[in-house]
Design a protein that fits this description.
Helices cover about 30% and strands about 40% of the residues. It has a single domain, classed as OB fold (Dihydrolipoamide Acetyltransferase, E2P), CATH 2.40.50. It has about 140 residues and is α+β, with helices and mostly antiparallel strands.
């Protein structure tokens, strides 16, 4: 009986992971062109525009504009400050970065049109790592 429960739990966990997409280092060796941070209804939103991005992600704003975003309900935490300072540092140095995104979390909301059509925030990102100076 316990084996069935464990197997069922593992199967449900695996299926939920498949349904929600995967976190992958989809953006590799890109250069940060623009970094912005703002709040919407008291919730923080961070958006990055990069050059050298993949073009066939399946997310129109990400493909067209090279944008990714991070958003949360709540306040600007220490983790957000660390990520944002890392992004700004990379931008200032012209350093190559890799960005961890959820390849199934594409925001195409019509209220986000800073870069023109197609509207939206792009793919949701979860992390960034520095690669070193660009050549």
């Amino acid at each position: 009986m316990r084996i069935r429960i464990v197997f069922l739990f593992l199967a449900m966990l695996a299926m939920s992971r498949i349904a929600s997409g995967a976190q992958v280092w989809l953006y590799e060796d890109v250069i940060v062109e623009d970094a912005s941070f703002y709040t919407v209804n008291g919730n923080p939103v961070m958006q990055i525009k990069v050059t050298g991005h993949p073009v066939n992600t399946g997310c129109a704003p990400a493909d067209e504009h090279g944008i990714v975003y991070m958003a949360a309900a709540g306040t600007f935490s220490g983790n957000w400050q660390f990520v944002y300072s890392t992004i700004l540092s990379a931008q200032a140095q012209g350093a190559l970065v890799d960005i961890l995104v959820d390849d199934a979390a594409c925001n195409t909301g019509t209220g986000w049109y800073d870069f023109g059509p197609p509207s939206g925030l792009g793919l949701k990102f979860y992390g960034v790592r520095l690669d070193g100076p660009s050549q």
